[in-house]
Specification:
It is a single chain. It is built from twelve helices and eight strands. The two termini are 29 Å apart. α7 crosses α12 and α8 packs across α9. Strands 3-2-1-4-5-6-7-8 form an eight-stranded mixed β-sheet.
């Protein structure tokens, strides 16, 4: 398969790096197109078999699947250039927030398989969460092609597009909330005398371990919390203080703000050309 990446910034670059580092990529031809010479040169240095296209049209002509790692505000311009050279047998994968499948399909030739995805930044270490939304013409083969590129980034789940705003709140944006939690824990540890780098490791490993336990344990989240909270102990004291200060409600409100913004962005884009 010939795979093209348009845009190699934080998110597109994370998926590209994870895929290019995988065994599957050894069977693939990978081409990139990016306005940043610095970013492109870094990838070409790390992955000598990768090639850089001078223009978006050049990349499209030599690809079977194209991943659009472009910010929402730049999608229209990029889509117009890409579609001038597009073959409807090719598969398009878009990660732009607020850019619907209907909007994307309005640009591509009739019958083009479009797959909308919502990844998150932990993809750069192979622990991302990627929602996959197949478009009207994305058959099983097209979805499998997309998943082959995405799988090295982490976990994949197929969801209907009407769940994509929820996905943005629960996983797309949530690494930022989690970093804030880790930062607060680490800072509190520093305030109590722990060296900063050690505090960072303790806080991050605690979150990593808790997340792994959630994924591997059959117990409910409530029960997992109860298991740690011995009556009269230190943990229940901390949990009670967090509850008193509205911890759960604050997280829910942050989630909803991300969801509402996603809905607003999608409405602003409309449904096509």
């Amino acid at each position: 398969m010939r795979t093209g990446f348009i845009g190699t910034g934080n998110m597109g670059g994370s998926i590209l790096r994870a895929y290019a580092s995988s065994a599957r990529a050894a069977e693939d031809t990978i081409m990139i197109c990016d306005r940043s010479d610095e970013r492109a040169d870094a990838f070409l240095k790390d992955f000598p078999g990768m090639r850089r296209a001078e223009t978006i049209a050049d990349l499209v002509r030599e690809s079977d699947l194209v991943v659009f790692g472009v910010k929402p505000q730049g999608m229209e311009e990029v889509l117009k250039e890409a579609c001038a050279a597009w073959d409807p047998e090719m598969t398009a994968v878009s990660m732009a927030a607020g850019v619907s499948i209907a909007y994307l399909e309005g640009f591509f030739p009739e019958g083009t398989p479009v797959v909308r995805i919502m990844p998150n930044t932990p993809a750069m270490v192979g622990e991302g969460m990627v929602a996959v939304c197949p478009g009207s013409f994305a058959d099983e083969a097209a979805v499998e092609r997309a998943e082959a590129v995405l799988r090295p980034s982490g976990r994949l789940e197929i969801v209907p597009e009407d769940m994509i705003d929820c996905v943005i709140g629960v996983s797309g944006s949530s690494p930022a909330y989690t970093f804030m939690y880790i930062q607060a824990l680490a800072q509190a540890a520093c305030d109590n005398g722990m060296p900063p780098e050690q505090a960072r490791v303790f806080a991050a490993q605690a979150v990593l371990g808790a997340a792994k336990l959630v994924l591997e344990s059959p117990e409910s989240l409530d029960q997992l919390r109860i298991n740690v909270c011995s009556p009269g102990g230190t943990t229940i004291e901390a949990v009670n203080k967090l509850m008193e200060n509205g911890f759960m409600d604050s997280v829910k409100e942050g989630f909803q703000a991300a969801v509402d913004k996603s809905v607003e962005m999608t409405k602003a884009k409309g449904s096509g050309k």
